[in-house]
Amino acid sequence: APSYPEYTREEVGRHRSPEERVWVTHGTDVFDVTDFVELHPGGPDKILLAAGGALEPFWALYAVHGEPHVLELLQQYKVGELSPDEAPAAPDAQDPFAGDPPRHPGLRVNSQKPFNAEPPAELLAERFLTPNELFFTRNHLPVPAVEPSSYRLRVDGPGGGTLSLSLAELRSRFPKHEVTATLQAAGNRRSEMSRVRPVKGLPWDIGAISTARWGGARLRDVLLHAGFPEELQGEWHVCFEGLDADPGGAPYGASIPYGRALSPAADVLLAYEMNGTELPRDHGFPVRVVVPGVVGARSVKWLRRVAVSPDESPSHWQQNDYKGFSPCVDWDTVDYRTAPAIQELPVQSAVTQPRPGAAVPPGELTVKGYAWSGGGREVVRVDVSLDGGRTWKVARLMGDKAPPGRAWAWALWELTVPVEAGTELEIVCKAVDSSYNVQPDSVAPIWNLRGVLSTAWHRVRVSVQD
Q: What is the value of pTM for the model shown?
């Protein structure tokens, strides 16, 4: 057998682009796949996601990589082996984030502590359901470690009574309900707002949005079981608390209107499954709230308590965050008491392929993306322009038609158009929902100091080159 040099993972990680060579690992072997990048059947952008790192997490997304001929092909590019004396560093016991779970290396990280990351746009619209390991992660605090056998969900009932449910009781006492729903962070596409004026918040690109098939008990069923009526007179709210807490012990919290929580058509879940498996730790294990059609901040993870109140949740994230303001409001004049908390989100869309700055070949160009609207409103049309909005074409929508008012999941769309060499394209998309709401054409008029609700036309500039 030939003898190969040994490399550390750090040395492999230096080779991430065709200019510097593209190295990857599989098992303990190191491969130089620079010459294969343009030949990759999934396109060069897909294989470059693994550049400088391990292939396994990406290969797991596509079953074809398990075929013997793929490994045989890869062996042609072997250049070395990983040094056997490499060992991962021991976690810092004093670090409150030391117990966080491992994450997929393909996620694009916006902050490590707390962990916040989005799937790469190249993979975002590849599948209708987002794989669990690529689903965007929005954490405000360290991920709690929960022992499922000792878990209890507390539901404060009317008259001071309390219902305590184990995970097994939640599964056995209430019918399992499934719903396919998209969750979107309030700050999705915030980076575009920051290019107009600085904003405060994580620099999300277009990936703070994902779709899953959720399974669990209806919140309605649990509240009725706890003794609450179908309707309450006046304004009432259902408040949620998570097991994640700040150093002072204050938990993450949020609330939704009582009418939405009790509505049979709202499909609000106490979910314990995600895409057919138990919830991953980053996504709320063992139980989370899923509120379809509503900003992701209300879908509280690691749920420990549900309570009904005449007031919204007192949590910081309900009272002093996740609210929208006029462009004229700054940090010297902002008063969070004057704005309602975000619940349903406006209509949204984005281009996932091609990526900004790409060079695309002449001939036929396929433009892909996603579109979604809050409140269960169906996306009825996506318009796409290749000349900055002067002329338009209608994209093809994909996905099943949902019942009226319950279009909880996104629509994926695509458009194939001829393009000529030597041209510069400004690709623009805008979605229209069933209430004929449409995205605004520019960011500046909807700019706000927190960078939330960024829904202007999405623009991607590319060049067409031989």
A: 0.90
